[in-house]
Design goal:
Helix content: 25-40%
Number of strands: 11
GO molecular function: ATP binding; ATP hydrolysis activity
Oligomer: single chain
Keywords: ATP-binding, Cell membrane, Membrane, Nucleotide-binding, Transport
Strand order of the largest sheet: 7-8-9-3-10-11
Strand content: 25-35%
Structural class: alpha/beta
Largest sheet: 6 strands, mixed
Domain ABC transporter: 2-225
Protein name: Molybdenum transport ATP-binding protein
Bound molecules: adenosine-5'-triphosphate
Distance between the termini: 28 Å
Radius of gyration: 18 Å
Order of helices and strands: EEEHEEEEHHHEHEHEE
InterPro entries: AAA+_ATPase (IPR003593), ABC_SmlMolc_Importer (IPR050093), ABC_transporter-like_ATP-bd (IPR003439), ABC_transporter-like_CS (IPR017871), P-loop_NTPase (IPR027417)
């Protein structure tokens, strides 16, 4: 899928300023962003998701313009068809697994009291082997299960792209390895484009068909060999 980003944003916190100046273009469905802490990786995903408004520039996904300062376009997050998974998965603690998955689908008379009635919820619970845990709450789940709930909730909305901010950082080594392979297979099966932030070289190797390094708010030039 075509992703085109060319944005600038200045952030100021007390006496510290940060300039984000990201320009990237890719046709890949498996993109990895990596780089040191504080480089601007999360801000880049937030800009794509519509959670951060650049001062100027352009963001295009497929044929859709999500942001274009010159044309006065800034789609709100809910119109972007972008799923953004935070580092801590951000599940709703007071909702069950099924209700979490159903959350974004609420429309018309469908309500969260009977999430199983929704075929999309049933489908995603089954494909992530979560049917047996449908009535559990997030604190009753393992780290891997919590991550699968977050993925199921994101994918239920059939997004154009999945943005993952350090998806495995909260998992122990064994589970991290397994979830990395699961995510890789899932991406291939569903054909959903994804952009992943990571610090882990193993993620680069498995999930990154195209890899961008971000340093000091900018895409670093490719290393020479
Ligand atoms: N709301 C804000 N106001 C001011 N500065 C901010 C704000 N949000 C982030 N920053 C600064 O922008 C820089 C980039 O932050 P960002 O979260 O994108 O880093 P990152 O590359 O994702 O780091 P990490 O790998 O540690 O998550 C940091 O120096 C941070 O302090």
């Amino acid at each position: 899928m075509t992703i085109e980003i060319n944005i600038r944003k200045h952030l100021q916190a007390d006496d510290r300023g940060f300039n984000l100046e990201i320009a990237l273009h890719t046709e890949s469905d498996r993109v990895v962003l990596y780089g040191p802490s504080g480089a601007g990786k999360s801000l880049t995903l937030q800009a794509i998701a519509g959670l951060l408004t650049p001062d100027e520039g352009l963001i295009r996904l497929k044929q859709n313009t999500l942001f274009d300062s010159a044309g006065g376009i800034c789609l709100p997050p809910q119109q972007r068809k972008v799923a953004y998974l935070f580092q801590d998965y951000a599940l709703f603690p007071h909702l069950t697994v099924a209700q979490n998955v159903a959350f974004g689908l609420r429309r018309g008379c469908f309500n969260l009291r009977r999430p199983h009635d929704h075929p999309v919820v049933r489908k995603w619970l089954a494909s992530f082997e979560l049917s047996a845990a449908a009535n559990s709450y997030p604190h009753q789940l393992s780290g891997g299960q919590r991550q699968r709930v977050a993925l199921a909730r994101a994918l239920a909305l059939e997004p154009d792209i999945l943005l993952l901010d350090e998806p495995f950082s909260a998992l122990d080594l064994n589970l991290r390895d397994r979830m990395r392979r699961e995510l890789s297979e899932l991406q291939k099966q569903l054909n959903v484009p994804m952009m992943v932030i990571t610090h882990d070289p193993a993620d680069l190797a498995l999930l990154g068909d195209e890899i961008f390094e971000i340093r000091d708010g900018m895409i670093a030039p490719p290393a020479r060999t």
